[in-house]
Amino acid sequence: MFPERTGYIIWVSDLKAARNLEKYGSVHYLSRRMHYVVMYVNADRAEDTIKNIRKLSYVRKIERSFRNEIKTEYSKDTEDKTRYYGL
User: Fold this and answer.
1) Is residue 74 part of a domain?
2) What residue ranges in the chain does DSSP mark as E strands?
3) What SS3 state is found at 87?
4) Which residues pair with 8 in a beta bridge?
5) Can you give the pLDDT of all 87 residues of the chain as single tens digits?
6) Residue 76 forms part of a structural domain
7) What domain of life does the native source organism fall in (predicted)?
8) Would residue 22 count as lying in a domain?
């Protein structure tokens, strides 16, 4: 249904030019104070897209986001102690 997406943090030197990144993927957040852009691109074309983004003059560094690889389902290994405390 939805294509697999990969997140990237792109450190830029010019924020006005960073708005131009929308043609490569969907820009999720643009930090004006720290000069970085969080954007998502299709996972099947991510390598080619990042190669093109890296060539831009205002891009300083590109980091891949590991947010989708973090475990979000938690298990409770310890006993629930709240039932011992009554009103």
Assistant:
1) no
2) 5-12, 26-31, 36-42, 59-64
3) coil
4) 39, 64
5) 778 999 999 999 999 999 999 999 999 999 999 999 999 999 999 999 999 999 999 999 999 998 878 887 877 777 777 767 665
6) no
7) Bacteria
8) yes
Q: What is the dihedral of CA 42, 24, 55, 49, to 10 degrees?
A: 20
Would you say 26 and 8 are in contact if contact means Cβ atoms under 8 Å apart? no
Q: What is the pTM for the complete model shown?
A: 0.77
Residue with tokens 């924020």: 15
- Name the H helices within 1-87: 15-18, 46-54
The C-alpha angle with vertex 17 and arms to 11 and 18, in degrees rounded to 5, equals 40
CATH code for the domain of 15: 3.30.70.80
